[in-house]
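Following up on my earlier thread - several people asked me to post the actual chain instead of describing it. Fair enough. Here it is, all 77 residues.
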Amino acid sequence: MPSAPQHWTARHFSQANPAGPGPGCDSAPDLLRRLAESIEELGPAEIQHIVVESEPTEHGHCWSGTVYFHLPEDDTD
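Reply from S.P.:
Thanks for posting it. Predicted structure:
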């Protein structure tokens, strides 16, 4: 008999550098620092996946990132 499919739900948040002209949009280090600070603020989270990407704009490449995670209270075992 085949086993029942398993399903998971992950929480997530996204952050992006400020868009538009001026400093900041194209700074990958700035985005990574903000993502790291936000992850630390989660406390004992289990990080599942981090996606970082840049999008070309008229003002250069703007960076953004999404973090997928689980919190201890999400466990239903």
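The longest strand covers residues 46-57. That should answer part of your original question.
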